[in-house]
Write a structure and sequence with these properties.
The chain contains five helices and twelve strands. The protein is of the alpha+beta class and 167 residues long. Helix content is 32%, strand content 41%. It has one domain: Bifunctional nuclease domain, CATH 3.10.690.10. The longest helix has 12 residues. Helix 1 packs parallel to helix 3 and helix 2 packs across helix 3. An eight-stranded mixed beta sheet has the order 6-5-4-7-1-2-3-8, sandwiched between helices. A two-stranded antiparallel ribbon has the order 9-12. Strands 10-11 form a two-stranded antiparallel ribbon.
């Protein structure tokens, strides 16, 4: 497994979808995922440390886990098949049991950022869907266009610095 950090989140103007870029710093590789607007907004809010008046789904899930004494141990983006990413949400119960739950990567990433859990990708995922960091500079402007982006501050989770964040 390869450790990932959130690099940036931005909106694609033409499709109103959101692009999430995860970075594997030790490999110089990036994972670029298109996620829905609401899921992308949840990731951006967590990356910025913003609080909402009422809990969003990932915040509610985090609160339920906490109330039950459970934690998010890690997120693993385990598979890339037919242009779709698949993730596992690894949980630890109050009595120490490890439980793995299938999850959409966007939901798992938002929850990992909220709980401070590490995010990983299977080597096969990076091999199949990863992009060299050098390639991203030219393409990022094409993806995001003139979308409003801002440099993130602080940490988005362990070993992860944020870059551009959706507003």
């Amino acid at each position: 497994m390869i450790a990932l950090s959130l690099m940036s989140v931005g909106m694609v103007e033409e499709t109103a979808s959101v692009i999430v870029i995860l970075r594997a710093p030790d490999q110089g590789r990036l994972l670029v995922m298109e996620v829905g607007l609401l899921e992308g907004r949840a990731i951006a809010l967590e990356a910025e440390g913003a609080k909402t008046p009422r809990p969003l789904t990932h915040e509610l899930t985090h609160r339920v886990l906490d109330a039950l004494g459970g934690t998010v141990a890690q997120v693993v983006i385990r598979e890339f098949r037919e242009k779709t990413f698949y993730a596992d949400l690894a949980l630890r119960s109050a009595d120490g049991r490890d439980v793995v739950v299938d999850a959409r990567p966007s939901d798992a990433i938002a929850l990992a950022l909220r709980s401070g859990a590490p995010i990983f990708a299977a080597e096969a995922v990076l091999a199949a869907a990863g992009i060299d960091e050098d390639e991203i500079a030219d393409e990022e402007e094409d993806w995001f266009g003139d979308a409003e982006k801002e440099e993130g501050e602080g940490e988005a989770g362990p070993e992860s610095g944020t870059g551009n964040v959706l507003h």
